[in-house]
Amino acid sequence: MEALFHYIRKYSSIAVSEEDFELIKSHFTYKRLRKKQYFLQEGDVCRYFAFVLKGAMRQYYVDEKGMEHVVQLAIENWWVGDRESWVKLSPSRYTIDAWENSELLMISYQDVVKLSQLFPSLAEMMRKMDESNNIATQKRITSAISHSAERRYADFALEYPEILRRFPQYVIASYIGITKDTLSRIRKQGLNN
Amino acid sequence: MEALFHYIRKYSSIAVSEEDFELIKSHFTYKRLRKKQYFLQEGDVCRYFAFVLKGAMRQYYVDEKGMEHVVQLAIENWWVGDRESWVKLSPSRYTIDAWENSELLMISYQDVVKLSQLFPSLAEMMRKMDESNNIATQKRITSAISHSAERRYADFALEYPEILRRFPQYVIASYIGITKDTLSRIRKQGLNN
DNA sequence: AAAAAAAGTAGACAAATGTCTACCCAGTTG
DNA sequence: CAACTGGGTAGACATTTGTCTACTTTTTTT
Predict the structure, then answer these.
(1) In a 3-state reduction of DSSP, which class is residue B180?
(2) B104 and chain A: CB distance < 8 Å anywhere?
(3) Domains plus CATH for chain A?
């Protein structure tokens, strides 16, 4: 529980008192998920966005041929959810499941809006989250459209070593948009440089 | 000038008076760019984010081999700029130039922060912009890592017909991460379906 | 420890995409 | 009108990446 408190303070310039935090906390729902359990299934509305207290989560899209494409990975102190579905309450095209046993703190969009009005610090945190999220996705797009698979993997390994450690290669491969076979080749080749 | 006013009202639930708007407006700088002129050059800090009143802008990244990779395109009522550089005042890796003669309304990060404190409606607009931007980039990433070039082009054409009309094929090709040659082939093939 | 499941590697082949050169076409400019 | 420029197409070939099947290694479960 403390992790969220730290997170809010880290991303906010305005102080948050213990009492404020108690009220904020009361709007979050704690949830435990065991490995392989779903947080969101395709077609369902993503009613909650979740702060990851513990564990590792995977968000993916299943195409017409039944192939899974990983669009997002999250570990401790990251947020997970389908933004569009969460905001618009529209059915999601994504599936989110727990890759490890995980603990989450979930909150609805409505409650975020409400709390943001009460606590400017929370609004600020959300804004900064959005901001850094935008910056990160911009980088990912730049990488995806302009670099080779080899370069994308190298960049990823450098930027997210912890993620690399906790997910198997084929999940990472999917995240950077290639198959496990290609990643295996790239890694082998990389050893001789 | 009116376009920005409309934009703010459209994206904000809180009313904005004419007087408020006058003050907001005074923080924006009007700028005209002729075709091919730069709005941002690689290595420079992106001091301003710009609202496009008129014209068409192109944002791209130049790789080690001198190849240009289009990361963003913008026309009327869109915003353009390098978010990371703008927020952190760090040198940008991107170049932004005018594809058509254009008119912009530019604003610094500092001024946005200041105005957001004065006008909740502006803060709300910014938040919604971020939100929809996040949703759009998420979709683009999903498309980039999981669809074929053909599918990506089809999706693009459907979602942004106006952009398609105003930029040449090779710019669109770069935007979706392929070469002009490949796009040419895809389009030819598409005629027979 | 044995068995089963999950993850990674390898190689052969196929498909998609990139590269390069040449040429065409349309609009603009001298 | 000729020359030029920007954009698009075409085809030959190279490279990258995907697909599939088989096998090995590692991890988990029993």
Answers:
(1) helix
(2) no
(3) 2-118 (2.60.120.10)
